Amino acid sequence: MSRTAAKRRARAGSARPRHLIAGLLATATAVTATACTATDDDRPSIVVTTNILGDVTREMVGDEADVTVLMKPDADPHSFGLSAVQAAELEHADLVVYNGLGLEENVLRHVEAARESGVATFAAGEAADPLTFRTADDGGPEGEEGQPDPHFWTDPDRMHKVTGLIADQVIEHVDSVDPGTIRANTDRYLKQLTDLTDWMQKSFGRVSPDHRALVTNHHVFGYLADRFGFQVIGAVIPSGSTLASPSSSDLRSLTKAMEGAGVRTVFADSSQPKRLAEVLRTEMGGGVRVVELHSESLTAKGAGADTYLRMMRVNTTAMVTGLTGD
Q1: Strand 213-218's sheet: what is its strand order?
Q2: Is this model's pTM higher than 0.85 or not?
Q3: Residue 250's pLDDT is what?
């Protein structure tokens, strides 16, 4: 028996009663699998909560381990949930990679349960030198001053740092992977991230200083603004989470800020309804442009933003166009 299989069996034997149903469901699924699949149970397993981190992890791991991504394409990380089988996968993984800082609001309790059952876990956001939300007067979400902002991936330099740390975690906690292969894959991807930062810097250089004000559906681009010299003047949803709702006073404050800054463009995430952003058109008498971005989730394969690198390039191009009018 491999060390990976032994660890899984030990964890399964020590699982607490409240996870029994999930364990039984996972077992029932395994019974219906083919003999070939049963053999694959001994392969090392990495479970990743968000599809953005899942894409990055797969780039590093390659064929060295099975990488399961829990969040579907075009989903909202703040609201997606898990099935019982997915919860069981977490507790039988060799490593769980998650964003943390409150992002996966319906999933974090399952990550905690996996950690308590002995699974190695890595909170990427906590290792990314996180920023905190600013005060409402500075353009940040009111009531969240001092709280960590989980959206670190909008800064490719922070993703560069996190990528190297995920590689370290894989080598340390996932048996039977070849460290040399993981390091080679990681070095190749880190070079692509460096190229991405350089390209974004050059692209944003087309936006004049007096047009570097951002309004979004909710507060998601604080890291991008910090890295590339933008100002976030407000959001339709005055929160770092899509689960919050704006009040009439919030919208009035936002429209006043937009009018003062001469901003007529709102960037809305493609995974969320644009109704709230479009309310601003009524509030400001029309003339407000809503530009769709893929800020919190990758798309399905072939849909334009199906990898982290493509998502960042598509968003950068859309933002430059939206801010310059090109």
Answers
A1: 231-237, 213-218, 265-269, 289-293
A2: no
A3: 67
**Nearest alpha-carbon partner for 274 in 242, 301, 297:** 242
Least confident segment among 104-113, 127-136, 140-149, 183-192: 140-149
Q: Which two tokens stand for residue 65?
A: 């381990």
Residue with tokens 């769709």: 292
> Any idea what the Cα angle at residue 275 is, between residues 274 and 281, rounded to 5°?
100
Three-state DSSP class for residue 231: strand
Please tell me whether residue 120 adopts helix, strand or coil conformation: strand
Q: What is the pLDDT of residue 4?
A: 55
Distance CA 214, CA 320 (A): 11
Per 3-state DSSP, what percentage of the chain is helix, strand, and coil (rounded to 5)?
50, 15, 35
> What are the start-end ranges of the H helices in 44-103?
51-61, 84-91
| 53 neighbors 121 (Cβ within 8 angstroms) | no
Tell me the CA distances in angstroms from 224 to 81, 156, 159, 201, 227, one per residue in order: 27, 8, 11, 11, 5
pLDDT digits (tens, 9 = 90+) for 76-135: 888 888 999 999 999 999 999 999 999 998 999 999 999 999 999 999 999 999 999 864
Q: Which residue in this structure is represented by tokens 């090392």? A: 44
User: What distances in angstroms separate CA 281 from CA 97, 242, 285, 306, one per listed residue?
Assistant: 40, 20, 6, 30
